[in-house]
Amino acid sequence: MEQVLVENEVQQVKLLDSVNDDHGGVIVELSEAMDLKVFALMLKASIALWRSQGKRGVWIKIPIELIYLAAAAVKEGFWFHHAEPKYLMLAFWIPEGAHTLPANASHCVSIVAFVMNNKREVLVVQEKCGIFRGTGRWKFPTGGVDEGEDICAGAIREVKEETAIDTEFVEVLAFWQSHKSFFEKSNLHFVCMLRPLSFDIQKQESEIEDAQWMPWDDYVAQPFVQKHELSRQLVDIYRAKEDETYFGFPPVPMASKHPGQKSYLYFNDRDLKSSKV
Question: What is the pLDDT of residues 146-185, one digit of tens each?
């Protein structure tokens, strides 16, 4: 309980349940429905206590069914930090001056899949939606990496979803960064080389207009590839890779902090091994 002034009268108010975080702040996870005015009083009293204790950042996680409580928190000075399908996270900074709380995630991660068979044909698709819809442009399979998914696994999954082709991940050939893309977020695009393990294409009906194995020279001859600087640079990388004069970054499994899982370090292990000879 904490004493707060309510309508010129000091009252005893129950505090919000909280746990300390690792950075001198507190975390509140709401789970029970309550009256908006009651929550506002509890929040005000809790902030007073946290301030007296020298706490710094305050995080309040509000499940979607209690979203009506967010209004009271915003009125108290909280701001929206991020939202997920089932909750909203609010943040507050108690000390005076600029806060040092970490920002929300700033980047999305996507892959571009370069898959070539032993006939020097590349796996390409035409999309039903997006900026290339209706343009007739053939492009490599692309897609976003899911939360908790490794880049190598995401590349294999995207190729399978769009074309039904099974693949083996070889390496990351290159990556680039773009800005102001999906909801103003930046994007990291990883160009991945994969080896085909099957060859019969079945296009994804919901997103893919067409898919095929295209001769490499036909792909390169497309006007967009010839005019677009990034595409031309990637073609040079693919050619150098074919000539074995360029080496990318294969995934090397490492121990993970999560039991039973692996993480991956992507690096040029070929040059590293040769440097140790």
Answer: 999 999 999 999 999 999 999 999 999 999 999 988 788 8
- Segment 147-155 long-range contacts (CB within 8 Å, at least 24 positions apart): 150/251, 150/263, 150/264, 151/109, 151/111, 151/190, 151/192, 151/251, 151/264, 151/266, 152/192, 152/251, 152/264, 154/109, 154/111, 155/111, 155/113, 155/190, 155/192, 155/194
Beta bridge partners of 9: 6
Name the burial class of residue 43, with classes exposed (0-12), middle (13-18) and buried (19+) by CB atoms within 10 angstroms of its CB.
buried
In one-letter notation, the amino acid at residue 50 is W
137: tokens are: 């442009």
* Residues carrying an active site annotation: 161
Q: What CA–CA distance (Å, rounded) separates 25 from 53?
A: 10
Give me the residue label for tokens 């082709």.
165
d(C-alpha 55, C-alpha 48), whole Å: 10
Tokens of 201: 């294409």
